[in-house]
Amino acid sequence: MFMQRYEISFISGNKQRFLRVFGLYSRFFPTFAVVSRKNRKKMDKNYIYELRLKVRDYECDLQGIVNNANYQHYIEHTRHEFLLAHHVSFADLHARGIDCVVARLNMQFKMPLRSGDEFVSKLWIKKEGVKYVFMQDIFRACDMKLAVRAQVDTVCLINGRLSDCEELNTTFAPYF
């Protein structure tokens, strides 16, 4: 009988370690994220930021799953926290006439999250002309299965005109 090999990911201090076990034993480690090799390959992107959140009851619809509109809240919150981690404040930018706005949003729903599920929202960024393209994925934390994949194209309006923002270019230069 073939058994799929799994990796169990856990955080100890600032180091991430992986313990390999067979799927048969995965049920004995309920507090760890069990990740199959196949899912690990999907996750191995150049993520530059991640945020751990938990689904609240009121975010779910009658089917008991997260309402699709709430996923947009999750990915937006992740982007905002990413910007704050880089000392970029929307209020400060706006006061100086710089408004960062979403130009396009594409979300692919892979599997639903349910009330109480913990999840990890991850992102990486690339630059295309004047656009900052945020590639964002949401994974259910218990098994790191992909729940949502999103691409968010954002642009900057400087004093009401579509422009390239040198301040953001400098801040995000290490990631392009």
Structure description:
The chain has helices at 37-43, 68-85, 90-95, 166-172; strands at residues 5-12, 15-22, 33-36, 49-54, 98-109, 118-128, 131-140, 145-158, 161-163. By secondary structure, the protein is an alpha+beta fold. The protein folds into 2 domains: 1-42, no CATH class; 45-175, Hotdog Thioesterase (Thiol Ester Dehydrase, Chain A, Roll). The strands form 2 sheets. Strands 4, 5, 6, 7, 8 and 9 form a 6-stranded antiparallel sheet that branches. A 3-stranded antiparallel sheet has the order 2-1-3. A hairpin with a 4-residue loop joins β7 and β8 (145-158). The chain is elongated. The termini are far apart. The relative contact order is 0.18.
Relevant terms:
176 residues; alpha+beta; Thiol Ester Dehydrase, Chain A; 6-stranded antiparallel β-sheet; 3-stranded antiparallel β-sheet; 4 helices; 9 strands; 43% strand; elongated; disordered N terminus
Distance between the terminal alpha carbons, to the nearest Å? Answer: 46 Å
| Percent strand | 35-45%
Number of domains: 2
What overall geometry do the principal axes of the alpha carbons give? Answer: elongated
Percent helix: 10-25%
Low-confidence stretches: 1-36
CATH class of the largest domain: Alpha Beta
Number of helices: 4
